[in-house]
Amino acid sequence: MNIVSKIDAWQAIRKACAGKTIGFVPTMGHLHAGHLSLCERSRRENEITVVSIFVNPTQFNQASDFDLYPRTLEQDTAILASQQVDYLLLPDAESLYPDHYQIQLTETEMSRELEGEYRPGHFNGMLTVVLKLLNLVQPARAYFGEKDYQQLLLVKKMAAALFLPVDIVPCETIRAEDGLALSSRNSRLNTEQRQKAAHFPQLLQSHQPVEHIAEQLKALGFKVDYIVEKWQRRLGAVWLDDVRLIDNISIHK
Ligand code: PAF
Q1: What gap in Å lies between CA 155 and CA 58, rounded to an integer?
Q2: Which of the ends of the chain has fewer CB neighbours closer than 10 A, N or C?
């Protein structure tokens, strides 16, 4: 696996890859089986697989969340190398934001609700960095987990609106045995919180009205941001103390 930190070095490599299909998996690191399933799919469907690790400061609406975001680069690099990933991109914030984030991409509808309501500015930052990364990597396909369902819809919407020549591929959420969706943030849960966290997907999957689900989660000690049905999914966001969890399931009938 080639590790590339400099943007101009990557651009030279990208030129040399002309004519090959590239699959791209953008990440913020602290990789888990969910990320690896995206890499595996990319490997199956493309000649070259590129993964990026960049903890994007502009999509964190709280400085503490950015500071506490787990960074495990050494471990991530070893995992990706064993997954036969071809290129690992590790850009830094100065090179990705030569404009100091004065140029931003804004979506004015979907990005304002649910996650957008509770995390103002999050989707501007996410869309802006994803656009930058897609422009740099120029993949045929880019892989996004369904766990961040609103993110996936917004990236698809951006790709369509800006005529980006990329196929945005949705990938199923990977779960732990007790149903908890894998997420880099799960490692911030202590043992007791981790046990309690399993109630979240279990209740989300139960055949009950969303109001009942929210009440039961509150009774168990969760703080509930929202539990709603939309886009043929049931989506939720909750807090266990200072750790925020999001999840969604298909309710397609
Ligand atoms: O889902 C994530 O990890 C991030 O939002 C992404 C897509 C890598 C952009 O920073």
Answers
A1: 16
A2: C
Domain end, chosen from 171, 200, 228, is at: 171
In the chain the beta strands, taken as DSSP E runs, fall at: 2-4, 22-27, 48-53, 87-89, 141-145, 167-171, 223-230, 233-240, 243-250
| Protein residue whose Cα sits closest to atom 5 of ligand 1 | 126
Based on the fold, state whether residues 166 and 190 are members of the same structural domain. no
Query: pLDDT of 143-174, one tens digit each?
Result: 999 999 999 999 999 999 999 999 999 999 99
Closest by CA position to 153, among listed 121, 182, 100, 110:
110
**Contact yes or no for 173/34 (Cβ under 8 A):** yes
Q: Which atom of ligand 1 is nearest to the CA of 54?
A: 10
- Quick one: DSSP state of residue 90? -
Rounded CA separation 65/210 (Å): 28
3-state secondary structure of 170: strand
Determine, yes or no, domain membership for 17.
yes
Cα–Cα distance for residue pair 97/57, rounded to 1 Å? 10
- Ligand 1 surroundings by CB, under 6 angstroms: 26-28, 56, 59, 126, 129-130, 148, 151
The ligand 1 atom nearest the CA atom of 27: 8
CATH assignment of the domain containing 82: 3.40.50.620
Q: Domain containing 230: what range?
A: 186-248
253 is a domain residue: no
What letter does residue 243 receive in the DSSP assignment? E
Based on the domain organization, do 84 and 199 belong to the same domain? Answer: no
For residue 219, the domain's CATH number is 3.30.1300.10
pLDDT digits (tens, 9 = 90+) for 205-217: 999 999 999 999 9
